[in-house]
């Protein structure tokens, strides 16, 4: 299998495609990810493991996709990044639901209430009504949070360690923000 070399990659095209992907995500993708999450299983996970172990489990799942995406350098990064981002968003949503349940005792919440919590966790402007603009801002904040270390993932093996660590710390940071929030 021939993996693309760095010279063959059009970074402007990749950047444009990533931005288009995030725009698509903000136009209904977040809701699709949310709808795929089984809120009752999150409740059961928190009840069984405890909130801190559940958060750690989610962070490890996020780290796993970061490791896989970065371990092969640019080839696996280009192929794996969309899946890695979806996994990170899913783990962020799971952590958000788990912490919300932990503090409120309610495990079933609707998307609009849920997304206000997500927007707060990434420090988006929640003064605006829940709209496409807020969802775009959340998508951009997630991208910026993950993209700052993306170039370091280009180095095979080392990139995997960096990718896994960045994802793990991202989920742990979101959890910390959510735990400090008033419910």
What is the average of the pLDDT values? 77
* Helical content class: over 70%
Low-confidence stretches: 125-132
Query: What percent of residues are in strands?
Result: under 5%
What distance separates the N and C termini? 51 Å
How would you summarize this macromolecular structure in one to three sentences?
The protein is mainly alpha-helical. It has helices at residues 11-36, 39-49, 51-71, 74-104, 111-121, 132-147, 158-180. This is EcsC family protein.
Task: Give a verbal description of the structure.
This protein has one domain. With 183 residues, the chain is mainly alpha-helical. Helices cover 76% and strands 0% of the residues.
How would the blueprint of this fold be written?
Blueprint: H1 11-36, H2 39-49, H3 51-71, H4 74-104, H5 111-121, H6 132-147, H7 158-180
Helix pairs in contact: 1-4, 1-6, 2-3, 2-4, 3-4, 3-7, 4-5, 4-7
């Amino acid at each position: 299998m021939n993996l693309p070399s760095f010279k063959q990659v059009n970074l402007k095209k990749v950047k444009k495609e990533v931005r288009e992907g995030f725009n698509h995500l903000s136009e209904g993708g977040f809701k699709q990810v949310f709808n795929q999450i089984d809120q009752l299983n999150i409740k059961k996970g928190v009840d069984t493991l405890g909130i801190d172990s559940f958060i750690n489990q989610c962070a490890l799942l996020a780290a796993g996709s970061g490791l896989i995406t970065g371990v092969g350098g640019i080839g696996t990064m280009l192929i794996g990044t969309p899946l890695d981002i979806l996994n990170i968003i899913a783990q962020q949503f799971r952590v958000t639901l788990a912490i919300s349940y932990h503090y409120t005792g309610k495990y079933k919440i609707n998307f609009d209430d849920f997304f206000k919590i997500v927007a707060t966790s990434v420090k988006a402007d929640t003064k605006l009504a829940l709209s496409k603009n807020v969802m775009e801002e959340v998508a951009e904040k997630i991208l910026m949070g993950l993209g700052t270390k993306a170039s370091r993932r280009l180095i095979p093996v080392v990139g995997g360690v960096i990718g896994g660590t960045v994802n793990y710390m991202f989920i742990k940071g979101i959890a910390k923000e959510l735990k400090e929030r008033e419910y």
